[in-house]
Automatic annotation (TrEMBL):
One of its GO terms (biological process) is microtubule-based movement. It comes from Molothrus ater (Brown-headed cowbird). PANTHER family: CYTOPLASMIC DYNEIN 1 HEAVY CHAIN 1 (PTHR46532:SF13), MALE FERTILITY FACTOR KL5 (PTHR46532). Pfam families: DHC_N1. GO terms for cellular component: axonemal dynein complex. Residues 1-138 form the Dynein heavy chain tail domain. The gene is Dnah5_5. This is DYH5 protein. GO terms for molecular function: dynein intermediate chain binding; dynein light intermediate chain binding. The lineage of its organism: Eukaryota, Metazoa, Chordata, Craniata, Vertebrata.
Length: 151
């Protein structure tokens, strides 16, 4: 079930900021970490021992599932690591005045470019584009708040 959810197309609101991206991957990491812990349990090891001893054909399917779970867990872990590294750059989008917010943008863009160049999983145009959309949405929210406060 968790793998099926992982493979589904992501649907989210247009006005989410970059914190939402980190939260999304943290939740995925938590789910897959729990699954990985379950796979290491004595009960699962015992079942695998029985299947191995019986030379079951289910082992091939099990190994394929295990590989998919491990890969998804690694992706979530990697993405959380890199998105955490952006936090200091996107915090001004939430907490600063417009001038400080604008001053933070070049550092944020450079950090995102760095992630795109070195991340094993977060380097797709879809993920990077989605992150830039979230940054833009948060800027827009902040400017809207300031505008309504002034008016």
């Amino acid at each position: 079930k968790v793998l099926a959810e992982n493979d589904q197309l992501r649907k989210e609101a247009d006005d989410l900021g970059p914190r939402a991206e980190l939260d999304y991957w943290k939740k995925k990491l938590s789910k897959f970490h729990y699954l990985m812990e379950q796979l290491k349990s004595p009960d699962v090891k015992a079942v695998l021992g029985v299947l191995t001893a019986a030379k079951s054909k289910l082992l091939k399917k099990w190994r394929a599932l295990d590989i998919r779970i491990t890969d998804a867990a690694n992706e979530a872990k990697d993405n959380v690591k890199y998105l955490y590294s952006l936090e200091k750059y996107y915090d001004p989008l939430y907490n600063s005045d417009p001038v400080s917010m604008l001053d933070a943008i070049p550092g944020l863009i450079n950090a995102i470019k760095m992630i795109q160049s070195i991340s094993q999983y977060y380097n797709t145009s879809e993920k990077i584009s989605s992150l830039f959309v979230k940054v833009g949405a948060q800027q827009e929210k902040k400017y809207s708040q300031i505008f309504f406060c002034v008016v």
